[in-house]
Write a structure and sequence with these properties.
Number of helices: 6
Helix content: 40-55%
Strand content: under 5%
Distance between the termini: 68 Å
Number of strands: 3
Length: 172
């Protein structure tokens, strides 16, 4: 699991070089550099906790809830989020890091880690998307919860009326 730091540090170095060369992209690239640094720190912390057996509980999903404003001056800026946007912006120099990340995520220890720690999948998903790793590792994809199967209730006969789920009232 030690290759993660090498991959993400190398990616940050490439981003820093491009940010210094192209002043028009500096703000965006510095923001991505910071995002990768935070992702690396969070993943390293989760790995240490997973190895120690003291994982935090996964947070509840907030899907469908209305976002609460955090302050009057709180502005949330969204960067590019298309598939492979960093690859398109920086070119061939980031390809080895995407390949390295794909290889790393296919290792058995990482597969086991990502299966046990859903928080790590949320952290890695943007990195995988920005590097356009194909095919997507199955352990990164969102786990879709399957709705429980609806068991049809038995038909009930009451005073000459037959009622069954999903049907009209039928006179018997």
């Amino acid at each position: 699991m030690g290759n993660l730091a090498f991959i993400l540090t190398g990616l940050q170095a490439v981003i820093a070089v491009h940010a210094a060369r192209n002043r028009a992209l500096t703000v965006l690239l510095v923001a991505m550099w910071g995002r990768i640094a935070r992702a690396r720190t969070r993943l390293e912390r989760l790995i240490a906790r997973w190895r120690a057996g003291i994982l935090p509980a996964p947070r509840k999903s907030r899907a469908g809830q209305i976002a609460r404003p955090t302050g009057a001056l709180s502005i949330r800026v969204r960067g590019p989020n298309g598939r492979g946007w960093l690859l398109g912006l920086l070119g061939y120099e980031v390809v080895p890091f995407g390949n390295g990340l794909r290889t790393l995520l296919s290792e058995p220890e990482w597969v086991e880690f990502l299966a046990a720690v859903p928080q790590a999948r949320r952290i890695l998903r943007p990195l995988v998307r920005m590097l356009s790793i194909d095919p997507l590792p199955e352990v990164i994809l969102k786990v879709r919860r399957v709705a429980p199967a609806i068991v049809p209730a038995p038909a009930v006969a009451m005073a000459g009326v037959v009622v069954s789920p999903g049907s009209q009232f039928l006179r018997g």
